[in-house]
User: Fold this.
Amino acid sequence: MGSRRKSREKALQILFQLDFNKSDIETVLRDFWKSNPTGDKVKSFTETLVRGAFEFRKPIDELISSTVENWSIDRLNSVDRAILRFATYELVYLPDIPPKVTINEAVEIAKAFGTDESGGFINGVLDKIREKIGKSTAGSEQDNGDIQHQ
Assistant:
């Protein structure tokens, strides 16, 4: 498993905790790293995702809610909500990561940690968000900067 996948899984865990824990983000992060020590590379990308998804939670939640017809963000199960938050943050605020990579990683994490329907649900929502923000699905994890339409 790559370091970015590990980071995304840890981001899911932390964002899930933040949904239920009334402590501030710094306390949650400190306690998480204390009980889940990890390398600097994983920790750095995890914190980028968590801090970004948390800081921009309002516009991210509005974008998710506007994409999921007839559902509010609060009605989503907590795992799906956390995955959608960090993946939407990636799509909108981290342009160096190809959208295809973000979506595929989120779907795989949803299949591992969510319900039987989570993978398809996450895929559909993130693809609609990608379309809304006008990003192509081109690129790969080894993207060399040449974007080609598939």
Notes: The chain is about 70% helix and 0% strand. Helices lie at 3-20, 25-35, 40-55, 57-67, 78-93, 99-113, 118-132. Residues 3-20 form the longest helix (18 residues). Confidence is low (pLDDT under 50) at residues 138-150.
